[in-house]
Amino acid sequence: MGPNETILRQWFAELWEQGRIERFHELAQPEMTFHTVGMTGETLAGVAGFRTLYDPIRAAFSNIKFAFHDAVEADNTAAIRWTMTMNHTGPELGVAPSGKPVTVTGISFVRFRDGKVTESWDEWDRLGFMKQAGIPLI
To answer: Can you list the pairs that 132-136 forms with residues at least 24 positions away whose Cβ atoms lie under 8 Å?
Structure first.
């Protein structure tokens, strides 16, 4: 495992699983750009942009865990394929909590600068996520 993959795994473990949003600035550049990560596929920028996705998901779901299936690293980039599991326990996202488990698959392709995440392209199963969580599709 290379240094960038290690940072990427820390990102998922510390921010998502442990809920340590304060680690954002230690792991990412302040101007970090998240391409296609939002609920509707929009680009998000910086910690403020990231929190528009992060905060509602962390409020609506507990016991977030990531399993990593494949990872590759070259120069200043790393990519990782993952599965996230969690329980729908909070009322955020416009629906009552079901208590049910939700499983989402995705892949993240990440660029690094000076040992920190600077740009990320994320593709994840938004439709499967919304269906499992009972979020209205329209």
So the answer is: 132/88, 132/100, 132/102, 132/103, 132/104, 133/60, 133/88, 133/93, 133/95, 133/98, 133/102, 134/88, 134/95, 134/96, 134/98, 135/93, 135/94, 135/95, 136/94, 136/95
